[in-house]
Amino acid sequence: MLCGICGSTNVSRDAWGEWDVAAQEWLLRTVFDYAHCHSCDAETRLVEAQLKD
Ligand SMILES: [Zn+2]
Q1: Residue 53 alpha carbon to ligand 1 centre in Å
Q2: Could you give the CA distance from residue 49 to residue 8 in angstroms, rounded to a whole number?
Q3: Distance from the CA of 25 to the center of ligand 1, in angstroms?
């Protein structure tokens, strides 16, 4: 996933993490629509891109 504005991969989604007692760690439960680019430091639209090898 890339930032639709600047092309950075330094992006996050708003999400719920659910506590897993047995594993003693947070599991990703739900990912919401809000996307944030840490390079733009603003809300963004994510675009999907293929990794080049
Ligand atoms: Zn950006």
Answers
A1: 23
A2: 11
A3: 29
Tally the C-alpha atoms within 13 A of residue 41's C-alpha that lie toward its C-beta: 0
Ligand 1 center to 4 CA (angstroms): 7
- Whether the Cβ atoms of residue 36 and residue 12 lie closer than 8 Å to each other: yes
Amino acid at 30: T
Residue (of 10, 6, 26) closest to 18 by Cα position: 26
What tens digit of pLDDT does each residue of 1-53 get?
999 999 999 999 999 999 999 999 999 999 999 999 999 999 999 999 998 87
- For 2: left if phi > 0, alpha if psi spans -120 to 50, otherwise beta; the answer is beta
